[in-house]
Amino acid sequence: MFIQSLVATTVIVRHGETEWNSEDRSQGQLDTPRLSRRGQEQARHLARDGISLWQRQVHTLALSSLQRARHTADIVREECAASASWRVWSTELLWEAGVPWAGLYKPEAAQRFPEAYRQFKYEPAASASIQELHRRVQQFWQRRQEQCAADDTANGTGAVWLVVAHNQTNRALLTQAAGWDLRQHRVWKQSNCGCSVVDAKRRIHLVNYVVPHRAACMPATEADKRLLELECDERLPQLQHARNAHGIEVIRGRPADLQRALGELLDGADTQQLVWYPGGRTRLERSGDGSSWTIAGHNWPAADAAPTVIAQCVSQCVEADRMLRA
């Protein structure tokens, strides 16, 4: 699906951890129990350290009506005093992908539904579950555009939409915002309470930022993934390759050079919609079989800039919105 404009800045968040997440158990569209204790802490950190600085700019909180997303949104609203003025839209359009193995542990799901599970994991364009999800997400964007057209305050300069949904749902939101097709659906890693920021021109400023800030400045990764980092440095005339103190390969360069490098890693995907901030880092994970790369985080900052990174991205998006309307 091609979306010409998103009208307003959109901040996309995955719900906090549930017990089933920690057990590697598929939830799908089952209205599983609320957040675990850790998931509740994740939501509080997100609100206090990630949303509070720009809470007054939120016009609409759009959320999946499944319990785990509602619980996350409730905690965010409790922590943000300005949420009393937020418009709230709870919708089934943001539900997680429906799968026949909901409730099963993932190894069992792969055994009982081998072909459907394989397509879901490795060939999303052929997966009926992913196809249906993208149709719903397309309807969400369309409904949002209609609501903004009917309410000037919803698309006014500086208005921000906060979306709380699910792993696959957020992947679909980002894929459609980037103008990519279903083949790239699984490119985006979505950690519990990971935060992504998209501006009105569909440009992606931040992917999967998790608060509080970690020492490694990136989401935790699985041991069997090959790691690669792209770091933006506008001073470099050409790409430079090195290894950091953790032994991770790092490619440094200017935004245009990094865009080309990332596009090649992602099988020719058009990466022009990703915005690169000076000093920002993009971490990629390669699957154990070497078949694909995943964007684990984009525009993650140096440690001293970490506490305000979401607010900075929102500010940049709002400024871009003003320039677009000028």
List its traits:
2 domains, five-stranded mixed sheet, His_PPase_superfam, phosphatase activity, Phosphoglycerate mutase, PGM_Phosphatase, six-stranded mixed sheet, Rossmann fold, 9 helices, single chain, globular, 34% helix, 326 residues, alpha/beta
Q: How would the blueprint of this fold be written?
A:
Elements: E1 9-14, H1 19-22, H2 37-51, E2 58-64, H3 67-79, E3 87-91, H4 106-112, H5 114-122, H6 128-150, E4 160-165, H7 167-178, E5 195-198, E6 204-209, E7 226-232, E8 240-243, E9 249-253, H8 255-265, E10 281-286, E11 293-300, H9 309-325
Helix pairs in contact: 2-3, 4-5, 6-7
Structural class: alpha/beta
The CATH class of the largest domain is identified as Alpha Beta
Task: Please identify which CATH superfamily of the largest domain we are dealing with.
Answer: Phosphoglycerate mutase-like
**Count of domain modules:** 2
For the biggest β-sheet, the strand order reads 3-2-4-1-5-6
Topology as H/E string?
A: EHHEHEHHHEHEEEEEHEEH
CATH architecture of the largest domain: 3-Layer(aba) Sandwich
User: Biggest β-sheet: count, sense, barrel?
Assistant: 6 strands, mixed
User: Helical amount among residues, as a percent range?
Assistant: 25-40%
State the end-to-end distance.
Answer: 27 Å
Percentage of residues in DSSP E strands: 15-25%
How many whole angstroms does the radius of gyration measure?
Answer: 19 Å
Task: Please give the number of β-strands.
Answer: 11
**Total number of helices:** 9
Q: CATH topology of the largest domain, which one?
A: Rossmann fold
Shape field: globular
* Poorly predicted sequence stretches spanning 5 or more consecutive residues: none
Nearest-integer average pLDDT: 91
